[in-house]
Amino acid sequence: MKYYLLLLSLFITTITNAKAVQDSTKSTPEVYKIGVQLTAPFITEKPNGSLDGLSIKSWKLVNENLDYKFEYKTYPSLAELLNAVEDGEVDFSINPITVTDSRMKRMDFSQPYFISHTGVAKKKESQVFNILKNLWSWEFISAILALLGTIFIFGFLVWIFERKKNAEEFGGGKGKGLMEGFWWSAVTMTTVGYGDKSPRTTGGRIIGLIWMFMAIIIISSLTASIASSLTVKSINDEISGISDLNRFKVGTVVSSSAADLLDLYNVNSEKLTSVKEGIELIKNDDLDLLVYDEPILRYSIEQMDAGKDIEVLEQTLKKDYYSYAFPKNSDLVKIINPALVRMLKSMEWENLIKEYK
């Protein structure tokens, strides 16, 4: 009896172990599929077709502790890559994917491995052109008209008092007399003091005295108004928050975290397929602003040799955290996270970060 019980026990143990091995084989593939999408400088392609970039190098450092066999599966767009991760078409993605509330509902994320910002790119503005443009602005014209009107009013008042008793300086007909009064008012206000005209009547001198003191205040305020109208306001000065973007023609990459941000604040934006497309649209004046991940914007502008025409604003819209993305409830998150944390503390990673900044 004991013999049969022993055989039964061995049989059950064998079946259990076989099932465990089978389950292990199912849950642990021989080769992991890693989804990527070309996103310089994080995912780039060498001339020989192999992949490179900061994210690729980060995974190589992480995999030194895991020793996984893997293969990359490239997707043409970010939207397709995110769908592939969500559907379990790939085991995970090492792309610089920003963690957002909406994406956390679709997939799981690892410990962030890179901190970035959502930036804004625009065409460089010509200071000379903007000054010339402002010369024809209503603000500048209205300031000039106000200045001329003030000069004319005091010139007219002096002419009223001086036109009869000081006809040689302020007479000679209504039109000429008014012009002489205007000339005196302008000379007095600017403190040039040619001395060719001066009021002689009591009323004229009272007006002149009032004008001398008032001119100091008026010319100061009008000069400040004219200077303000000529001040070149760049786009950067006009953007104090995300809602200010509605005044411009804005573009961003479809399915990106920047697109989610603009939609959240109801900012109308043109959805583009790539950063390069947005840069070309800005160069051709078909777009005012391109909103996307700051390091990717700067790298793309440099690679396209567009730095002479396009710049990235110092002001950013929000902070971003890049993480590896996994299908929902993936066991790989708990396995890869410790290795990723160790990588972030390594000297090799610190040197890589400096290289790509």
Strand-helix topology:
Blueprint: H1 2-27, E1 32-36, E2 44-45, E3 51-52, H2 54-66, E4 70-74, H3 78-86, E5 92-98, H4 101-104, E6 107-109, E7 114-123, H5 127-135, H6 138-162, H7 167-170, H8 174-189, H9 202-230, H10 235-238, E8 250-253, H11 257-264, E9 269-272, H12 275-283, E10 289-293, H13 294-303, E11 310-312, E12 318-327, H14 332-344, H15 347-356
Parallel strand pairs: 1-4, 1-5, 8-9, 8-10
Antiparallel strand pairs: 2-3, 5-12, 6-12, 7-10, 7-11, 7-12
Helix pairs in contact: 2-14, 2-15, 6-8, 6-9
In short:
The protein has 15 helices and twelve strands.
What does this structure look like?
Its main location: membrane. With 357 residues, the protein is an alpha/beta fold. The chain folds into 3 domains: 2-114 and 323-356, Periplasmic binding protein-like II (D-Maltodextrin-Binding Protein, domain 2, 3-Layer(aba) Sandwich); 130-230, Helix Hairpins (Orthogonal Bundle); 240-318, Periplasmic binding protein-like II (D-Maltodextrin-Binding Protein, domain 2). It is built from 15 helices and 12 strands. The protein has helices at 2-27, 54-66, 78-86, 101-104, 127-135, 138-162, 167-170, 174-189, 202-230, 235-238, 257-264, 275-283, 294-303, 332-344, 347-356; strands at 32-36, 44-45, 51-52, 70-74, 92-98, 107-109, 114-123, 250-253, 269-272, 289-293, 310-312, 318-327. Strands 1, 4, 5, 6, 7, 8, 9, 10, 11 and 12 form a 10-stranded mixed beta sheet that branches. The chain has a two-stranded antiparallel ribbon with strand order 2-3. Helix 2 (54-66) runs antiparallel to helix 15 (347-356) and helix 6 (138-162) packs across helix 8.
